[in-house]
Amino acid sequence: MRHISALFSIGLILSIVLVACGGEETPPPPTRTPLPQPTATPRSTPLPEVELPVILGSPDKPINLLFVIASPSSGQVDAQDTLQTQLNDQLGEALAVEVGILATPREALDALCKGEAALMWVDVFTYVAAERACGASPLLGVRQTQRVGANGIGFDFVYDRRVLGNAATPEMLANRKICRIEGDESPVNWVYPSLALRAAGVDPVTGLQGVIEVADAQSLVKAIFDEECVAGAIPNDQLDTLVRRLQQANPPVQINLQATALQVVVMQEGNESWLEIPHSVLIASPDFILPASFRDLVVEAIQELVETEEDDALKELVPYAQLVERTSADYADFRAWLEAARWGMDN
User: Fold this and answer.
1) Residue 15 included in any domain
2) Which of 51, 123, 128, 306 has the fewest CB atoms within 10 Å, counting from its CB?
3) For residue 84, how many other CB atoms are within 10 A of its CB?
4) Which range marks the domain in which residue 71 is found?
5) Which residues contact 321 (CB under 8 A, 6 or more apart)?
6) What CATH number does residue 320 fall under?
7) In sequence order, which ranges of 49-123 are alpha helices (DSSP H)?
8) Largest distance between two CA atoms of the chain
9) For the chain (length 347 residues), average pLDDT per consecutive 10?
10) For the chain, how many structural domains are there in total?
11) Vertex 336: Cα angle to 329 and 132 (nearest 5)
12) Is residue 17 part of a domain?
């Protein structure tokens, strides 16, 4: 009994002690502050390679110098390579030039007016068409002889004075027969005379009675004398020579050369002969395609070859006796003549 009482007393004392000490709840576990996470370093994605623009006039994008030759000979192909080497040697690092050959004037016109940076040797008709279409400009012109004014091919209309009188004009050829030289590719044969007729209001296709083809210029003069046709075109200043040859032929043709009794005479517009048709001309793309400074460098290099008489390759590609500087104003009369003839590249 005493033992139980003692245990009870001890338990009571412990309870009193715990209450006196203010027993506390079990504290919550300490809060853990999260450690800062390292920021991920962004990794760059490789950009696609950007091609640098090719600079005009560099070896990768040279300036083109083009010639129109329908069927180049082996000599002209060799001259093309030689001229390219000469020009690039002249220009050094300032400019790269590539020399090429085109087959037709139409190719030249299309290339020039569709954005190609180029200089081209073309006939005067292609130049006028390119000037109209895209503002091409002339730089140099060909002179085939040293005689002043010989800058192109001239022609004469010769006619039967017995039929048309002393002062015939192209209008008087309407509904009449005219002669032309068969197979002659010279513009004197048909291109220039037909333009003269158009300028006078005579359609060379529908406005004539007929076209008689003859073998050559001498035969043309004889055909007029024999009244096979009333007129035709020959190279200018050749009538007297052709008449003398006919007089010396076997049998002779008795054409009268006396001024008061001429049967075949030269037709003139007013008191002047027909316009000369200019020879080949070097033209350039408009300035916004080919800067003037670039074209001037090429022209200077060409002129240097001429002055140093190292121009055999150039002459092989564009025959000339002399090259002269040209501007649009130099072709004003010819341009006006084409406009009067309502000429276009395709007619």
Assistant:
1) no
2) 51
3) 18
4) 63-147+278-340
5) 143, 144, 145, 146
6) 3.40.190.180
7) 74-91, 105-113
8) 186
9) 51 50 55 60 65 81 95 96 96 94 94 91 95 95 74 85 87 94 76 85 92 93 93 88 89 73 71 75 94 96 96 96 95 89 75
10) 2
11) 75
12) no
Residues 6+ apart with CB under 8 A from 262: 161, 256
Q: Two tokens at 340?
A: 């009067």
| pLDDT tens by residue, 55-108 | 888 999 999 999 999 999 999 999 999 999 999 999 998 899 999 999 999 999
**Residue type (1 letter), 240:** D
Please check whether residue 127 is in contact with residue 337, taking contact to mean a CB–CB distance below 8 angstroms: no
CA 329 distance to own-chain centroid: 19
Residues 191, 161, single domain; the answer is yes
- Give yes or no: residues 110 and 202 share one domain: no
pTM confidence score = 0.74
Question: Which residue, chain included where needed, has tokens 């008191």?
Answer: 271
Pairing state between β 322-325 and 137-143: antiparallel
Distance, in Å, from the CA atom of 88 to the CA atom of 67, rounded to the nearest integer, reads: 17
Amino acid identity, position 292? A
Check if the beta carbon of residue 196 is closer than 8 Å to that of residue 170. yes
